[in-house]
Target: TonB-denpendent receptor
Amino acid sequence: MKKASLNVPLTFIAASILMAAAPVFAEETTEEEHQLDTVTIEANAVVTDIQKIGSVSSRINNEDIEKNLTKNLDDLLRYEPGVEASQDSRFGISSINIRGLDGDRVRITVDGVTQADAYGPTSTYLRTGRNAVDMDSLESVDIIKGGDVIEGSGALGGVVKYKTKEPSSFLEPTGNDTYVSLKAGYKSASDEYSETITAANRTDKVESLLVLTNRDSHETENHSGDAGSDTTVGATRGSVDPSDNGSNNVLAKVQVQVNDTNKIGLVGEYFHSTSESVLFSESSSTDEHSSDDESVRRRIGFFHENTQANALYDRLKWQLDYQDTKTTNKTYRSATNRIVDRFYDEEATSLKADLVKQVNAHQIRYGFNYDEKSLENLNKNTVAGVTSASRFSPVADANILGLYVEDNWAVSDDLTLVPAIRYDNYKYTTKGDEYIESWGNNQNEAITAQLGFDFDLSANYTLFGKFGTGFRAPNLDELYYYFENSGTGYAYRIKPNPDLDPETSKFIETGIRTQNAYGSAELVAFYNDYKNFIEQVSLGASATYNSGEFTNENLNHVVIKGVEFKGNIDLSKSIHALGDGWVLNGAVAYTEGDNLEDDEPLDSISPLSAVVGLGYDAPSMQWGGKLNFIWAAGKDEKDITSSNHWLSTSDYNLVDLTAYYKPTDNLTINAGLFNLTDEKYSNWNDIRNITNTSTNLNRYTRTGRNYGVDVTLAF
Model:
């Protein structure tokens, strides 16, 4: 492992957290305890916030989003070791990686509504992400690491739960009230200007909220800087491809407190993003490539909460949502006067209910979800004005049913057990047309279960853990992607496999957490065993397909394991000479994974990483700031599949400084300097899928020194 100048200070600071914590946490104290991060049981749960028993979780709240000048998903996860976003210069941020799993192996919801599947059967021309959410619409983000039976299909690596803003967050606790704020921001990394208007109102029993956000930006720079003046073409290009990007987001809510026990509401979301790029990196001197991409997500939902206790429940929340997510990617090629126009559309209607009933020492929670989806891909290819059409996969309908029950059982004052069981049933129904065969249907079911526990060893130490099973249903392109290239000298075929089984997992994690008035810490180890892992494999070459045939198959055995630590110390209480307001926090994540069937490392595993932050808030709360140190190990050849050894990366260190200032109660200024040392570095998950060894990897470096500023005026 290569060493860099900041490794020693970072290691020292991380170690200091542990050393400082040891004597502090050993003390028994009756002072008010400092709680670890908490998460809601569901992003839209009807119960109050409680810690997820047995799980490793964290919450990023709206205050964090504002202070860190969060503009996108990559900003959101920047200080969460073991969790990261990957990005592409054309398709943007497309995936969240948790403990080495990404794509549809991480479950993502917005207010309890499952987000559309990823669809990217090809490396070019069409790729959809799961990033159709604007950060300024969010109240909080809860991240649960590892398997979670309650969430159902897809929660193998973890769960990301977005919760949108509520009218009550801006209004006085009672009485009629109105709130309006105007926010303007700038981020130099992508030359982004953003504007957000927020308006909330309560009149008698009716609360309403409207959040409007507009963003305009260019390409996100790499370390070489502005790409606009670089006209180098081909794989050797070192700059990112230039682009003009924009997005608009609307969040609207109306809620009525009908009486003391009933509340109803409507919510609407509209997210629309566009990107126009000149694809110099894919062009040649005689053939310029350019693109015009669009992503749209629409959602409208109705919910009802009832707290009239009866024999079936003490609390009930049910919701009915309609969501349509469509991605369109257009690519233009000048030499052949060709337009490649492809889209993927996922339309879903979802019914969901969660109920809670307290029975003596048991808080029983149960519910169901039912989803009907229609899935469609269409490809149009226009050459010299003549258009042909095809599909990568047949038009399909999906029906998904899930039922669960969970018991939060207070066995004693020291021991809490949380057994849970879930049943899932899914079915894909396809139909052929003039573009493609149906390839048949796919149906399966799964029963999964888990047991979580918290055991208080003392007033300051808690042993926790969970073990259980999980599953993920295969998605549309894994089941049905078909493509054939019959070109002379380079003929190949990708075959569908509608008989794929769902991926399954067995997981176990255990750890210890400690907390008192001085701070908190948590150490956890985890082990995940996956079966039927879905990966593309080669079926070999033939006379017809001299470059081979490929299909998706279920691999027998993949193992992922690791260790994580996080902690924080209130330095003002530990070192009285500092005065009030000083906090030190840190986190470290280490994961390793292996495909035991091929005896190869799992390339989706992120290298060892750590974050240490020193923060200060003035007693007046009018100003403050935070200094964050980020360190990530390089990706060594021994941790990479043999064919990708050439992609190995080096260690890197980043230093960020953020600050806020509130000159009046109505005005807030947030500012930040990021990558202060102008470090040149690459994120492993940005490059791990590159196949062209002629590619200039400088193009995949992240932004050098950059800054941002937000100004919010509230009334």
